[in-house]
């Protein structure tokens, strides 16, 4: 009997050891890698950049660090706002580095270039920072997801709201690449549909240090609204110089920021930005969930998150959940699962991914507070209204996406 007990004890110990080894083996399988392709040093670094990398790492940690026994690793790189550099990095990541998903992608020219690479290589790409609505329009792909905002949603928010408030003549100051051109086009369409008029536009190169000539053209147009179809450092330069020139002091002209981030407001201060209307999918102080995430992010980055940072976290959580539920990381299966699963997190309520890849989500119209209204650092926005998901996305009947079957 003693020998039998000893044999059973040895057998049980061996079984436990084998199970432990199997678990260890499963946890050290081939890594699943996520690539954050971003602007780490240029004009778009504040709105995405290192904050986006950190938000993705937070999501991976929150998910548990692995999926289906595969450790999840995060790569990052600076595309330098050049489509050819972004394409080179994407090709290398997909072909040689085991990357299954590329995310973030500020700068729409880079975004559209990576979209084509992901299409050819049958990999996943999620746009959380690039804005061109062509991503889910004429350049749509079965593998591409536009997670937060696009130029149409920004136009539908700010453009329509400003016209309703009486700003019915517009002049655009536009960043002269795919993002700015798309934002100007979509906003002009919304303005005209709402009964407004577009008097002209001035286009500037990316990362322009002197906006005076462009601002003077906008001023001389006598348009009620100068629509700023730029972002990042270019937007900050524009707002600073517009304030210095006193363009809005006479009360005849107002500035409408078509893509503004809380980091822009923080850099400029409320004295310069008070009264600006803007559209966003996220604000850190909206509810308990947004405050909890933002507190964690602040502890890592010493600043509040933009909607891009928050969106990166949600997109990666949704992607990893889809991989888990699909049982593998094969792109068609993962995309199918992502589209079949509602999106519910601290930023998004009852969102879903449409057939063209556009995430349907509510957007919000905010007004920047006056200095006297702010209770402290980062207390910058007052929410004016909710823009329902159905109004924030381009109707499929108007879509140029070849994946959408017209009736």
Could you explain the architecture of this structure?
There is one protein chain. The protein has 407 residues and is α/β, with parallel strands linked by helices. Helix content is 44%, strand content 19%. The protein has helices at residues 2-27, 49-63, 83-96, 108-121, 151-164, 178-193, 212-220, 232-245, 262-268, 270-273, 288-301, 307-326, 331-340, 389-392, and strands spanning 32-38, 66-67, 70-78, 99-104, 124-127, 144-146, 169-175, 197-204, 225-229, 254-257, 277-280, 352-353, 359-360, 363-368, 381-387. The chain has a six-stranded mixed beta sheet with strand order 2-3-1-4-5-6, with helices on both faces. Mean pLDDT is 91; it is low at 1-27. Belongs to the leucine-binding protein family. InterPro entries: BCAA_transport, Leu-bd, Peripla_BP_I, TAT_signal. Residues 31-369 form the Leucine-binding protein domain.
